[in-house]
Write a structure and sequence with these properties.
With 498 residues, the protein is an alpha/beta fold. The protein has 14 helices and 14 strands. Among the domains are: 68 residues; 145 residues, Purple Acid Phosphatase, chain A, domain 2 (4-Layer Sandwich); 106 residues, Beta Barrel (OB fold (Dihydrolipoamide Acetyltransferase, E2P)). InterPro entries: DNA_pol_a/d/e_bsu (IPR007185), DNA_pol_alpha_B_N_sf (IPR043034), DNA_pol_alpha_bsu (IPR016722), OB_DPOA2 (IPR054300), Pol_alpha_B_N (IPR013627).
């Protein structure tokens, strides 16, 4: 493809169709200033966005851009000048993975020295590259700043490394070591894992309403069954005697839920999707949040206000009739990101975790994202010299390479806070990898079956979101964190606030 067709094709990709005269001007600039079509189009787009609000090129604007952007670049170097090298310091990349292309680049520069006048060498060009340490942290990114690859002072001075904070059953450290290989099959439970990308922000209200209605009917009917309640009725039916109504908790406004603003939204079949105001004044205690499915016993004297006397909200799933069996005990290590400090991108916590894993040899390692944290200050400042996808791949490959020859399988849970993932929930796994065992990339949330043992995984802080929306009476109850965690089990859902 010649220069003219290349320029035309690239502008068409940007949605800009150029006339022949403008194309001629573009080719003229490229030939005059010895610039290829890629560099020319990039220069024009940068100039247009900065100065012309993204307008298409004209003869006049191209001429102006040529004077401003290419004039200094095209000035010939004087052969009488003692130094012909640029005085600016070249952009240095730290911790860049060595490639075969580096050596020829240096050799080519040295050959140029033999045919150009000698001048003062810019020591920074080679000094910084050659002074880069030979051994680099396995998970550090290529960076434009040496600060990013400097170990964290906070992390190195911690005093509680390896300390057990909470024990459910007291055991010695050796008890957690994998003793033998166990044949394990890790697979999505009932296909409850996103494997393909979906269209973002394409959520018809009819589909959303249908999903919420299914939750009301499924959890609501189970609440009625396990508590031995009578069949639920229409929530606006006038009743002076106690009846049962099933529905999901809503708020009568867009504000936070409070005891005076609680609505009970019924299912389509029983209540036509209608909502009724819920009076909680006769309850001695309650814990509610938007999206919670409840069964309420009470009266509705006017048909407009349901006065609750009893409230049921706990519907934990029953244990399976047959428990999963394993040929030997399995060890599972679970770690949640981010896996580096806010003042460094050396990923020292991940390095320590991998040392633990290689020593204790668990059968499964579950890493809950983000791996490439969007909230990391040095990452958001644009200091890394590689794409987010490449950096994510580098971390994952580093993990897998350290586990070669072991029986450990790795599960990586996606996160909306991961720069390599889509910022949506549910979050599909990144497409930059084509994983195969021992690596499993799964969505957020995900249900995994490990030889029949089902594990629910999510990278979203459901408890924090629940804590912001929940109301509880009487206030000041103990173990609030335990109560928030129990909602996930009682409602059969890893994310409640809909």
């Amino acid at each position: 493809m010649d220069i003219r067709e290349g320029i035309k094709s690239q502008f068409l990709d940007l949605g800009i169709e150029l006339s022949d005269s403008i194309l001629d001007k573009c080719v003229e600039i490229c030939v005059l200033h010895n610039t290829d079509e890629d560099a020319f189009v990039e220069t024009w787009m940068a100039y247009s966005v900065t100065n012309l609000e993204g307008e298409a090129p004209t003869i006049e604007t191209l001429s102006t851009m040529e004077r401003k952007e290419f004039a200094n670049k095209s000035k010939p170097n004087s052969t009488n000048t003692p130094s012909s090298r640029p005085s600016t310091t070249p952009l240095t990349i730290y911790n860049k993975t060595p490639t075969s292309s580096k050596k020829p680049a240096v050799e080519n520069w040295n050959r140029l020295e033999n045919i150009t006048p000698k001048g003062t060498k810019n020591a920074g060009l080679f000094g910084k590259h050659l002074s880069t340490p030979v051994s680099q942290p396995n998970f550090s990114p290529a960076s434009f700043s040496p600060i990013s690859t400097t170990p964290s002072g906070k992390y190195s001075t911690r005093t509680n490394a390896g300390e057990a904070v909470v024990d459910f059953v007291e055991r010695t450290p050796g008890d957690w070591m994998g003793k033998e290989r166990v044949a394990l099959t890790i697979a999505p439970y009932r296909d409850e894992v996103l494997t393909t990308r979906c269209r973002i922000m394409m959520e018809p209200l009819s589909e959303k309403a249908a999903v919420l209605n299914d939750v009301i009917e499924r959890v609501g009917s189970y609440l009625v069954e396990i508590n031995g309640l009578q069949e639920s009725t229409y929530n606006h039916s006038v009743s002076a005697t106690e009846v049962v109504c099933v529905g999901r908790i809503c708020c009568d406004s867009n504000d936070h839920l409070n005891p005076s603003s609680v609505l009970l939204e019924g299912s389509r079949v029983k209540c036509l999707g209608h909502s009724v105001l819920l009076d909680l004044s006769r309850l001695t205690h309650f814990t509610l949040f938007p999206g919670q499915v409840v069964a309420v016993v009470g009266v509705n004297p006017t048909g407009q206000r349901f006065i609750a006397t009893k409230l049921y909200h706990s519907a934990p799933l029953p244990l399976p009739p047959v428990l999963p069996r394993f040929t030997a005990p399995i060890e599972i290590v679970i770690a949640a990101g981010p896996f580096t400090q806010t003042d460094s991108l050396t990923y020292e916590p991940l390095e320590d975790l991998m040392r633990y894993v290689t020593s204790y040899r668990p059968h499964i390692l579950i890493l809950i994202g983000p791996l490439v944290d969007l909230r990391q200050p040095q990452l958001t400042a644009g200091s890394i010299a590689e794409t987010y996808d490449d950096f994510f791949d580098k971390i994952v490959k580093g993990i897998v390479n350290q586990l070669k020859g072991s029986w450990t399988q790795v599960v990586v849970v996606s996160s909306a806070d991961d720069a390599a993932c889509l910022p949506v929930f549910p979050t599909p796994p990144p497409l930059s990898q084509n994983p195969s065992p021992p690596l499993h990339l799964v969505s957020d949330p995900a249900l995994l079956s490990i030889n029949g043992l089902v594990i629910a995984l999510t990278a979203t802080d459901s408890l924090m979101h629940l804590g912001k929306e929940e109301i509880s009476f009487p206030p000041g109850g103990s173990d609030r964190l335990g109560r928030l965690a129990s909602h996930l089990l009682q409602q059969q859902h890893v994310y409640q606030c809909f």
